[in-house]
Design goal:
By secondary structure, the chain is α/β, with parallel strands linked by helices. The strands form 6 sheets. Strands 14-15-12-18-19-11-20 form a 7-stranded parallel beta sheet. The chain has a 7-stranded parallel beta sheet with strand order 23-24-22-25-26-21-27, with helices on both faces. Strands 7-8-6-5-9 form a 5-stranded mixed beta sheet. Helix content is 38%, strand content 22%. It has 4 domains: 10-96, no CATH class; 100-164, no CATH class; 176-353, P-loop containing nucleotide triphosphate hydrolases (Rossmann fold, 3-Layer(aba) Sandwich); 361-549, Rossmann fold, CATH 3.40.50.300.
Length: 551
């Protein structure tokens, strides 16, 4: 450069856009820095495109970064000054978080603005004004405790997110303790330490990175009765296993303290496990079970796989802002764009660690990611061309050349614990029948599911075919091969969950293999580019190969 500085791997290309050159020797360091405040938008070839967003910058502010730190990181990795417009965007966005706070003053909840003018501006909004109470001074108004969540959503809509510092209810005390064998890894301790001071927010860890035991450590830190919201019956069973294995109570075993609130049993105990589906069930126009969360006994509400919160549970979350809240996820990406609602109602991202970093440290299994492109027949190509929407994706998923590739991959990995996973039942049923393999879908009875999962864990079963029910909360530590035969509209969150099935460390240290089968020149190929963004965000490199060249 003319000013004598050395070009870095980063280029500021427009007010909100950052380009990372992957072939630069400092690219990995730059990627780690960007992960703290920018969102990966596109990842083709040797250049990745990042975008500066409100949510990314607000999360950075909540985690302790300031605008000066972000600007310095960009300057350091670009080797030059940040353009004025970009500097203004960063500074203004980060200044917005913290300019409005929610605080407790005695028994009152108050909304406090950084200046009288800002408060006047907020009260000019009809929704905020309807939720505001009496004006206590030039910079604050009272707020009803029941309106806390709704107000926070309204403020986020105005791009004035509230820093919620108001008191949290203690809940009923519960002396939960970790057993000696529950040895926390350094990053798990760091995650709890980052979350605990505020008592709200999201911890992002990879599948296999020990999110559950991290949450149990947080519950022990809180020392109060706890409600755990999960994705389904299998997830509830896994939480119960981990509770029994890793925790105890000060006055005795944990067994009698665990309750299941589900379709069969409706137990409310000091640690109660339930599902999002249960809470979102409506009868006679009412969500009959939402009252479970309103119970004042809970000192902590844990949202497992928080990126999957259904709309009804967002409403529920808005009503329980006076409780400690911990969201757990492998990726905060939501394909419906409601990341801002997670930020607002559960809390900011308190801790995140790149998957590849934990792989280098040996905490999760190393993984290779390979996309294998198959060629549809002329008849299949025409069927794809005539279809539209989901029917087009279904047509691409049904490409018969995938059956041959699956057979070759099973032969290559003969004897290794393997999952074949997909989104469309017809194709999975055909594949399972062709290879005489058991199949788990949403229609499979829960007892049968658990029986098959246990057989895979023990080594009595080598290969299992699973539908989308296999995306979440499956603890199958020895599985080392996943063959993804179809996916859901380029969902990065689905990619995270499916890759995550493989990442628990293997007893013999072997590598994990994640294969994605893609029909060439179809909508699947378009979707795969989006799904690969997740892999790139986590620092993974992936290979694209033609089925004809497969060894």
């Amino acid at each position: 450069m003319d000013d004598g500085t050395t070009p870095g791997p980063l280029l500021v290309a427009g007010t909100e856009t950052l380009l990372l050159q992957l072939d630069h020797p400092d690219a990995d360091d730059c990627r780690l820095a960007l992960a703290g405040f920018a969102e990966l938008e596109r990842s083709p070839g040797h250049v990745h495109t990042y975008r500066l967003t409100d949510i990314g910058l607000w999360n950075a502010k909540a985690s302790g970064l300031d605008a000066r730190s972000v600007l310095h990181a960009i300057e350091h990795h670009s080797g030059g000054p940040v353009p004025h417009a970009t500097a203004i965007l960063i500074t203004e966005a980060m200044d917005r978080f913290g300019a409005v706070t929610l605080v407790s003053v005695g028994e009152e909840l108050r909304l406090r603005a950084a200046s009288p003018g800002l408060l006047d501006e907020l009260l000019a909004d009809a929704e905020v004004a309807a939720l505001a109470g009496d004006r206590r001074d030039r910079c604050s108004v009272t707020i009803a405790a029941t309106d806390r969540g709704r107000l926070k959503l309204a403020l986020t809509r105005l791009r004035r997110p509230a820093d919620d510092r108001a008191a949290l209810g203690p809940g009923r005390p519960l002396e939960l303790r970790l057993r000696p064998e529950a040895r926390l890894r350094p990053y798990q301790r760091d995650a709890v330490a980052a979350w605990a001071p505020a008592g709200t927010g999201v911890v992002v860890l990879p599948c296999g990175g020990g999110k559950t035991i991290t949450a149990l450590a947080a519950a022990a830190e809180v020392g109060a009765e706890t409600l755990v919201l999960t994705t389904g019956q299998a997830s509830m069973a896994q939480w119960e296993r981990e509770l029994r294995r890793f925790t105890t109570l000060a006055d005795g075993p944990i067994d009698e303290a665990i309750g299941h609130y589900g379709t069969g049993r409706k137990e409310i105990r000091p640690i109660t496990l339930t599902t999002y589906q249960m809470l979102a069930t409506r009868r006679d126009g009412r969500y009959r079970h939402l009252g479970l969360v309103d119970d004042g006994r809970w000192g902590l509400v844990i949202y497992d796989e928080v990126h999957l919160l259904p709309a009804a549970v967002f409403s529920l979350a808005a009503g329980v802002q006076a409780r400690r809240r911990l969201g757990l996820t492998a990726t905060l990406v939501r394909e419906d764009g409601r990341e801002a609602d997670v930020f607002t109602l559960i809390g900011p991202k308190r801790y995140d660690v790149p998957w590849s970093e934990l792989e280098l440290q040996g905490w999760i299994a190393p993984a290779t990611c390979t996309e294998i492109r198959v060629v549809p027949s002329d008849e299949e190509r025409m069927a794809h061309a005539r279809a539209s929407g989901q029917a087009r994706a279904r047509a691409a998923a049904a490409t018969r050349a995938k059956l041959d590739v699956v057979a070759r991959l099973l032969e290559r990995h003969r004897g290794e614990p393997t999952l074949i996973i997909g989104s469309y039942l017809e194709g999975l049923e055909e594949l399972a029948a062709a290879h005489d393999l058991p199949l788990v879908t949403g229609r499979t009875a829960n007892g049968r599911r658990l029986e098959l999962f246990d057989a895979l864990r023990r080594g009595d079963l080598a290969t299992l075919v699973v539908s989308k029910v296999g995306n979440f909360s499956l603890d199958l530590p020895e599985v080392s091969v996943a063959i993804q035969v179809s996916g859901t509209f380029g969902s990065r969150q689905e990619e995270a969950q499916r890759l995550g099935r493989l990442l628990r460390p293997k007893a013999d240290g072997r590598q994990a293999h994640f294969y994605t089968l893609v029909a060439r020149d179809t909508v699947e190929q378009e979707h795969s580019a989006r799904r690969q963004r997740f892999l790139a965000e986590q620092g993974y490199h992936y290979e694209i190969r033609d089925a004809a060249d497969l060894d």
